[in-house]
Amino acid sequence: METNHTFFFAAGGVLNGIAQLVVLIACIILVIKQKSGSTIMMLVAQILGIFVSVGGFTWTALSAQVDPESVLTASKTMALLGPLPHILFAIGLIWFVYSNVKKRESIE
User: Fold this and answer.
1) Is 46 within 8 Å of 85 (Cβ atoms)?
2) What does 43-81 look like in DSSP terms, one character per residue?
3) CA–CA distance, 51 with 47 (Å, rounded to integer)
4) Cβ-based neighbours of 58, under 8 Å, separated by 6 or more
5) pTM score of the predicted model
6) Do 64 and 21 contact (CB within 8 A), yes or no?
7) How far, in Å, CA of 63 to CA of 68, rounded?
8) Angle (CA) 15 84 24, round 5°
9) Backbone angles phi, psi at 34, to 5 degrees
10) Residue ranges per structural domain of the chain
11) What is the pLDDT along the chain (108 residues), one digit of tens a residue?
């Protein structure tokens, strides 16, 4: 039964990694096609998000070898830092959408 749980957590991690890479590729394409402050912000936020994900996983795994208190500290810190790249990405996306809507309104 233990390996079944491990499989689901591992599969979830792999799917999360794939999703992050797909969004990263989309951001790179967007910056190439339409370079602006908003698209660069989304790209930077996505790269930061990947670093936070990998860093959080690594930090938690390494702290598990020390003691339970270290795991708790790592988890609390990642709970605070984890959403920051998502917030930055969302701000960049809103900025991008607002800029494009404004451009279309001025054309019409």
Assistant:
1) yes
2) HHHHHHHHHHHHHHHHHHHHHHTT-HHHHHHHHHHHHHH
3) 6
4) none
5) 0.85
6) no
7) 8
8) 45
9) -145, 80
10) 23-107
11) 456 777 887 888 889 999 999 999 999 999 999 999 999 999 999 999 999 999 988 888 888 888 989 889 999 999 999 999 999 999 999 999 999 887 777 776
Count the residues in the chain.
108
Rg (CA), the chain: 18
56: its two tokens: 């959080």
Give the residue carrying structure tokens 């279309």: 104
User: Which residue shows structure tokens 């233990």?
Assistant: 2
Scan for tokens 């598990």, then name that residue.
Answer: 64
